[in-house]
Specification:
- This protein has about 500 residues and is of the alpha+beta class.
- It has 2 domains: about 15-225 and about 320-360, no CATH class; about 230-235 and about 245-315 and about 395-475, no CATH class.
- The chain has 15 helices and 21 strands.
- The chain has helices spanning about 30-40, 45-60, 110-120, 125-140, 145-150, 155-160, 180-190, 195, 200-210, 220-225, 250-265, 270-280, 400-415, 420-425, 445-450; strands at about 15, 20-25, 70-75, 80-85, 140, 175, 225-230, 230-235, 240-245, 320-325, 330-335, 345-350, 355, 380-385, 390-395, 430, 435-440, 455, 470-475, 475-480, 490.
- The strands form 5 sheets. The chain has a 7-stranded antiparallel beta sheet with strand order 1-20-19-15-14-9-8, covered by helices on one side.
- Strand 8 and strand 9 (about 240-245) form a beta hairpin.
- Helix 4 packs antiparallel against helix 7.
Length: about 500
């Protein structure tokens, strides 16, 4: 009857305020699951896990039980904890050929949920996972993004044993049910991580990988452990910036924002040029991200009047973000991912999930591949703490674009731009020697004049991310969703 348009048509979304809690998530059904957790008396972490679980059902191209989670959690006492739910390369890997099933690392999402819930959860896990279980069991409709990914990756999915997967070859609007995924989520809710990392499911996962030429074993799954550490922390513009420590490239955001703060460029063209140049400069240190805070000592420079065209970041796109905040002061910034579309596209039929290909993140030394080693991760959620107890979580999908998108949004907001306007504003993304510019960007012509190799893309192109933000300011839980993708914010 009415033309409902596309999810990229409304540019400025409001900051919403809640009494008990808020959430911002990659998909409206995920945000709804988070709000339900608050209604049951849950914490911001309960809300985030509920949202992530729904994303694992409705957005398998971006994330799932065969993938990972990275999260930063601000506790009511002010401490910030980094939870690393990622896995290592199998012990049987010879370090070569990071393609297909050989790029699979041990999935960390389920272990990450367990640690997050044990530390910061208030509800039984069965209540937290109930919306995801219901969607998997009763059905959900295939979104345009999922349908596009299914069509584009059909050959890979077929090779990975997914032809019997209920999602395989489906089109927009088709209702899909995933009863085996529902059963696995129910088992995780009752039995914990052992339902995934041991017994029949571990054996089934190993069989699927072996069938496709990989070497992940049940013993690799059984040996997996989540890690919990302090984050990277640097002072920036009167705030404390917290990012994920090694082995993620979160430190690159600390480096780039600190250098931008030192440069103090004028707003507009000067700030955009400086941001492009500094993010390209920090990506020269990506392979060394394992050094963490020591990289803050590395000098970064750029020419204010010309582009160096250093190349820099790559073109990976995927992942899904969730940020949540509650009235008690728990704030979480998180990302879930399988890396490429459907990860390695290796299907585990007994659990109806796809396995990641995070091993493709290995590269030059010291980020070279070896058995039992973690690659540098693109996932870079951020958390900011400031005066008077203010806390904000921010995250975005977009792989190497994450650092760039967050730099633009945070620097604009701290420079005085209204937060909603800072998120809505047109963006750039440096990628493989080009500068991708979102249509309507005010600096496009002048950036080209400085020597940047400009390519204009439609507003809302997936490469410009989809920011989720949630926080506590003035004692009030707040949240904000990007207009890009299907990002949605809610409050209770």
């Amino acid at each position: 009857m009415f033309n409902t348009g596309d999810p990229f048509s409304s540019y400025v979304r409001p900051v919403v305020e809640g009494r008990r809690g808020t959430i911002s998530a990659e998909h409206p059904l995920a945000a709804s699951a988070g709000l339900r957790a608050y209604d049951l008396g849950g914490s911001a972490v309960d809300a985030a896990i509920a949202a992530q679980a729904v994303l694992a059902v409705v957005a398998p191209e971006a994330c799932g039980l065969g993938g990972d989670v990275l999260a930063l959690v601000h506790a009511p006492d002010g401490t910030v904890t980094a939870i690393n739910g990622t896995g290592a390369l199998p012990q049987g890997h010879d370090g070569s050929d990071m393609t297909g099933a050989r790029a699979i690392t041990v999935p960390g999402l389920v272990s990450g949920w367990d640690r997050l819930h044990a530390r910061f959860g208030a509800l039984p896990l069965a209540d937290v996972l109930a919306p995801a279980i219901r969607l998997a069991e009763d059905g959900f409709r295939v979104s345009p993004g999922l349908a596009q990914a299914l069509a584009a990756q059909r050959a890979r999915l077929s090779a990975g044993g997914a032809e019997d997967w209920p999602c395989f070859d489906q089109h927009v609007g088709v209702e899909v049910r995933l009863p085996k995924l529902a059963a696995l989520l129910r088992a995780i809710a009752s039995d914990g991580p052992a339902a995934f990392y041991a017994g029949e499911m571990a054996e089934a996962t190993a069989r699927a990988v072996t069938r496709c030429g990989g070497c992940l074993s049940a013993s690799d799954l059984g040996a997996h452990r989540v890690t919990e550490t302090a984050p990277n922390r640097t002072d920036w513009a009167g705030l404390a910036l917290h990012t994920q420590p090694p082995m993620t490239q979160g430190i690159l955001l600390n480096m780039a924002l600190a250098a931008l703060d030192r440069a103090q460029p004028a707003p507009g063209l000067a700030a955009d040029h400086a941001g492009v140049e500094l993010t390209e400069a920090v990506f020269a240190f990506r392979a060394r991200a394992g050094e963490g805070m020591a990289l803050m000592e590395e000098p970064l420079d750029f020419a204010p009047t010309r582009a160096a065209n250093r190349g820099g970041p790559r073109a990976y796109l995927h992942t899904a973000g969730v940020a949540a905040a509650d009235a008690d002061g728990i704030v979480i910034s998180s990302l879930v991912s399988v890396f490429d579309d459907f990860g390695a596209a290796v299907h585990v039929p007994e659990g109806s999930f796809m396995l990641n290909n995070r091993g493709a993140g290995f590269g030059e030394a010291p980020n070279d591949a070896a058995p039992g080693k973690h690659p540098v991760h693109t996932l870079a959620p951020a958390l900011l703490t400031g005066p008077d107890g203010a806390v904000w979580a921010a995250a975005t999908p977009g792989a190497d674009g994450q650092i760039q998108t967050l730099l633009q949004v945070l620097s604009k907001a701290q420079g005085g731009t209204d937060l909603a306007q800072a998120v809505a504003a047109p963006r750039w993304r440096s990628e493989n020697g080009e500068l991708l510019i979102e249509e309507g960007h005010p600096s496009a012509t002048t950036l080209a004049a400085l020597g940047h190799r400009i390519r204009t893309l439609p507003a809302g192109d997936l490469r410009f991310g989809g920011v989720v933000m949630a926080g506590v300011q003035g004692g009030r839980p707040l949240a904000l969703a990007d207009w890009r993708r299907q990002t949605t914010a809610g409050a209770v």
